[in-house]
């Protein structure tokens, strides 16, 4: 969904409708994995050079001897917890918007793999909520107050 976002509750209601529409045989089998993915398109102010550390906390610093003008960026990190939760974060440049502002894509995929026993149809929503909460924490931990101010 693109901005303006309808909100988490609206999205969750759509997901409930999808799960409710599944055939009984699928619902009875449960889910082997549950995934929640967010892709944010972020327009930065048009200024040169762009110091990404002004906006994001998760990127490696540019060596001072490297040219200052960033032309392209791709950053990927994958992590996991012992409970089967995984986070895949990808940040890439995405050209310019029509106003000439540089664009970043912040793509965070949260997933939970069930392991030996599938997640039951009565449990999926709690797992989705947990992934959503975790996603929000990761996002907030990876942006600066300067970037947060752009969203107001």
Descriptive notes:
By secondary structure, the protein is α+β, with helices and mostly antiparallel strands. The chain has one domain: TBP-like. The protein contains four helices and four strands. The protein has a four-stranded antiparallel β-sheet, with helices on one face. Strand 2 and strand 3 form a beta hairpin.
Number of domains: 1
If helices are DSSP runs of H or I spanning 4 or more residues, what is the number of helices? 4
Order of helices and strands: HHEEEEHH
Sheet-strand content, in percent, reads: 25-35%
Question: What is the name of the CATH class?
Answer: Alpha Beta
* CATH fold topology: TBP-like
Number of strands: 4
Helix content: 25-40%
Query: Oligomeric state of the chains?
Result: single chain
Query: Rough shape?
Result: elongated
Name the poorly predicted regions.
none
Question: Could you tell me how far the N terminus lies from the C terminus, measured between alpha carbons in angstroms?
Answer: 19 Å
> How does CATH name the architecture?
2-Layer Sandwich
Tell me briefly what this model is.
The chain has helices at residues 8-21, 24-29, 124-142, 145-150; strands at residues 33-43, 74-80, 85-96, 102-113. By secondary structure, the protein is of the alpha+beta class.
Relevant terms:
alpha+beta, 30% helix, 152 residues, 4-stranded antiparallel β-sheet, 28% strand, single chain, TBP-like
């Amino acid at each position: 969904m693109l901005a303006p976002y309808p909100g988490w509750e609206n999205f969750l209601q759509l997901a409930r409708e999808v799960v409710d529409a599944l055939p009984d045989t699928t619902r009875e089998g449960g889910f082997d994995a549950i995934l929640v993915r967010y892709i944010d398109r972020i327009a930065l102010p048009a200024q040169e050079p762009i110091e990404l550390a002004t906006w994001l906390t998760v990127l490696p610093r540019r060596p001072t001897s490297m040219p200052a003008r960033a032309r392209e960026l791709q950053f990927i990190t994958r992590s996991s917890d012992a409970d089967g939760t995984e986070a895949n974060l990808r940040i890439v440049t995405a050209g310019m918007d029509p106003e000439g502002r540089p664009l970043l894509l912040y793509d965070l995929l949260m997933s939970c793999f069930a392991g030996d026993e599938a997640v039951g149809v009565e449990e999926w929503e709690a797992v989705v909520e947990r992934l959503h909460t975790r996603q929000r924490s990761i996002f907030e931990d990876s942006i600066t107050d300067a970037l947060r101010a752009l969203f107001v």
